[in-house]
Amino acid sequence: MMSDPMLEHYGAIVIDQAHERTVSTDILLGLLQDILVHRPDLRVVILTVSSMTDRLLAHYDPEGLMQSLEELDYLAALDDDGNLSEIGIIISELPLDAQMAKALLVSCEFDCVNEVVTIAAMLSGM
Q1: Which residue numbers in the chain have pLDDT < 50?
Q2: 12 bridge partner residues
Q3: Distance CA 46, CA 25 (A)
Q4: Is the separation of the CB atoms in 45 and 53 below 8 Å?
Q5: In this predicted model, what pLDDT tens digit does every residue of 74-98 receive, in sequence order?
Q6: Residues 80, 68: Cα–Cα separation, whole Å
Q7: Which of 10, 16, 60, 108 has its CA 20 to 30 A from that of 51?
Q8: 3-class SS at 104?
Q9: Whose CA is closest to 43, among 3, 96, 89?
Q10: 3-state secondary structure at position 110
């Protein structure tokens, strides 16, 4: 986060096992909350056990969380249990917006990788 404090190179952040509270996790969630004020387009997905859900929703906009989950589901980034699918894991590792990352992955099937990479490069410079 030192080189990219506003996480401009990322469209989605996935935090797994947020129920395992540590000082690092609390600091990370606090930083993300501050970043979201300036980056409403950033999607944060917090994976936790269901007993923590109510406490986490108190800090984040529930509609925004649902919108993020719906987008990840639409992109086939979540499996039937709500966990990251294989595609979701790959998408989360790419420093692109989730939709652009999925387009890049699918471009292989349509033999248009060069075109999608060009578009992704042009859009990421904005």
Answers
A1: none
A2: 43
A3: 11
A4: no
A5: 999 988 888 889 998 898 888 888 8
A6: 16
A7: 10
A8: helix
A9: 96
A10: coil
